[in-house]
Amino acid sequence: MNSALIVFATLSLISANEPKLNDVISALDKATSFFESTYDRLSVDGVAGFRLLQAQIGDTMRKWSLLGSEVATQLKKLDNLVRRLNFTSLKAIKAMKIKDPMYFNAFQQVLHVDFWTLKPGWTQTDSSLVYPKVRILECFGEEMSDRCMIQLLGTWEDNGVSCQKTETCSRLMMALNCPDYSLSHQLLYMIIIEHKGCSNIFGAQHMDSKSFHIIEDYKKVFCSNMMQRNLEIENNDFPYFQQDLFLENDESGYSPREEQYVFTKHKRVKRREKHLKGGCSDHMTSVAVGALGGYLRFYGTS
């Protein structure tokens, strides 16, 4: 498709979805204002969600920049949002270094906009990949998940080596039939492998086409099962205790959390969670803005 046809197709898409896009942009403006007023109270988790949002807006702007005056007003709004998000993120990161240095050092890489590299197109879920039966309990807890993530990131100790492979992490993070939150943790594990170029996890010396295909296959399995779980939650009229999970799956990504959890047969209960002004949840806010950024890209560039 030549550039003229691409521009025409994108303009047609934006025009068709203009009411939805306006609603999303309005919601993002309000979310950014909330971020500006609470930045010094957010955890790594919360700020990572806004960094993902910043990357999603930036990707949308790059595609719209070719369209000229037709989208000038909307581009100006998005540019303003990116500037505000970046400025506030830097202030939040500065506060976080002081407030929670250990957790910050472990996961600071996810606070870089470049960490959230967004590929063109969308992964299509496949109902044939949905597990016929899932485990009753989560496959692993928060502490184990964090441990596996920081082994890949190389933040398990000062000047630690990245892409550390352990039998336990490989077994848990690539296990099938896992339910709920385990799926999004497994998905992030694959995203980190790809971002860090950890081909050794699959026994390869370089991130060749075979390694990328393995990653994409796992991501498709996890995303397909996350979508199935969301459909189940929707069919049950969004029970309160499952709304956080729904948003996390909708975001198609995961931001690490510092809260501790108790596992029960039916759900994961948070022992403690940061509640911001107005009763907003630190974590739910993070995944919600990530989901909104996904809607912006989908309605504006797909």
Q: Which percent range fits the helix content?
A: 55-70%
The number of E-state strands comes to: 2
Q: What is the gyration radius calculated from CA atoms?
A: 19 Å
Unreliable segments of 5+ consecutive residues: 252-272
Based on CA inertia axes, which overall geometry fits? globular
Mean pLDDT: 85
What does the main sheet amount to?
Answer: 2 strands, antiparallel
Write the SSE topology.
Layout: H1 3-16, H2 18-38, H3 44-64, H4 72-99, H5 101-107, H6 142-153, H7 167-173, H8 180-196, H9 209-235, H10 243-250, E1 261-263, E2 268-270, H11 282-301
Helix pairs in contact: 2-4, 2-11, 3-4, 3-11, 4-5, 6-8, 8-9, 9-10, 10-11
Description:
By secondary structure, the chain is mainly α. It folds into two domains: 122 residues, no CATH class; 125 residues, no CATH class. It is 60% helix and 2% strand. The protein has eleven helices and two strands; from the N terminus they run ααααααααααββα. A two-stranded antiparallel ribbon has the order 1-2. Helix 3 packs antiparallel against helix 4, helix 3 runs parallel beside helix 11 and helix 4 packs across helix 5. The two termini are 15 Å apart.
